[in-house]
Amino acid sequence: MRNMFIIARREYLERIRSKAFIVMTILLPVLMLGATILPTFLMLRGSGETKHIVVVASNTATGELLRNQLNKASEQRAKEVTANTGMNRRNQEKVNYAVDVITDTSQSRRATLTEKVKQKQLAGVIFATDEALAARKISFVTRDISSFSTMDDVKSAVTQTVRNSFLLSKGLNQSDIETTFKPVDLESENATGSGNTLTVFFTAFGMVMIMYVTVLMYGINVMRAIIEEKTSRVMEVMLASARPMEMMAGKIIGVGAVGLTQVGIWAGTAALYASYSALASGSSLKTIISIKLLVFFGVFFLLGYILYSTLCAAIGAMVNSDQEAQQLQFIVMAPLIVAIVMMGSIIQSPNGPTAVWGSLFPFTAPLIMFLRICIETPPTWQIGLSMGLMALTAYVLVFLCARIYRVGVLMYGKRPNLPEIVKWIKYA
């Protein structure tokens, strides 16, 4: 037991002090924050500008109506920018409009205004003549066709203007029209009380992907560590003072502790960012992620890591180089890849047969059962059965792989076939 912890400590300290660990631990949160904050910062940096737009209409009433709709669109966008602090920030830079209305619809006037747009004297010109309104085809001349916010605002304003003009012609007053088209705010909430369904979805997806990457990455790290020591003949020296079982367990525990440390740092960074977003939006952090999810994340991460790192340790003991290991590691990691592919259907039907059986199969359960818990908590007996099957499978794998490891770490040359591996298990 003492040797096992000495090996685990050595594996942990060696990796946690490496430049690769430091870079990955710092780089990923920086990239994630940069991907969410930097685009928003750059977007909002140019927001608040005033764009000069000319509306060409057949009559003043239509032009004024379009001017009012543009101003309303600008005000609505300003509210969205203030309310949304994390997701859903696409096309939400604030834009103010200075709108002039003219009723000269001649071709010469159109050419003059178009030239002003080319010379950057105007941000755009909307040609909303009676003929264009009747044909439901409005022309918007602008240089800045890549500004999604402006294009959305103009399209929304023109659409509402066409509707209002039609309803006014039918005898409705402006007040009734505004009441009819007043938007309804739909706030979707999970029936279990876990918060906004969109937030729950992205939280679940993010945590599942983190689990997938870390289990995959650190399982392969165990395999490569064994291959490295095997090819350098360090194993022969270590076996003089430690049993093979202690060496395998020490490597799995040490590398796993590195994974938990890294995930803990990432989780802390994510919690700080989520806290900031929650405070800015007036919600609580509990609605974004709960203690229950954190506990289940740790449990399924550990069970999944033990399963796959044990298999990877056996592969590392069998092969003699990274090239040989790469040919086998895909077979070992295939269930994780299948689980990722199944995520879409499971999110749509978290209690369907595919989701239930996938969450009970030990090699896909770490991801699928955790995803089900995030989306819609399954019955307690299914969670318990899944964890029990994973623990039993891990115990059997540790027993078998330890036997493979005991013989394989001292075997060099040709990679063994299946009959030879069976002989190793019996011999050990």
Strand proportion: 5-15%
Shape: elongated
Distance between the termini: 20 Å
Written as H for each helix and E for each strand, in order along the chain, the element string is: HHEHEHEHEHHHHHHHHHHH
- Unreliable residue stretches: 84-92, 192-196
List keywords for this structure.
428 residues; alpha/beta; D-Maltodextrin-Binding Protein, domain 2; four-stranded mixed sheet; 6% strand
Would you write up a description of this structure?
The longest helix is centred in the middle third of the chain and has 38 residues, at 244-281. Helix 3 links the parallel strand 1 (49-57) and strand 2 (95-102). It is elongated, with a radius of gyration of 31 Å. Helix 8 packs parallel to helix 11 (291-318). It has a four-stranded mixed beta sheet, with helices on both faces. The protein has helices at 2-16, 19-45, 60-83, 107-118, 130-135, 148-169, 174-180, 197-231, 234-238, 244-281, 291-318, 322-348, 353-360, 365-375, 380-408, 418-427; strands at 49-57, 95-102, 124-128, 139-142. The chain is built from 16 helices and four strands. It has 428 residues and is α/β, with parallel strands linked by helices. The model is unreliable at 84-92 and 192-196 (pLDDT under 50). 71% of the residues lie in helices and 6% in strands. The chain folds into two domains: 51-180, D-Maltodextrin-Binding Protein, domain 2, CATH 3.40.190; 190-427, no CATH class.
Gist?
The protein is of the alpha/beta class and 428 residues long. It is built from 16 helices and 4 strands.
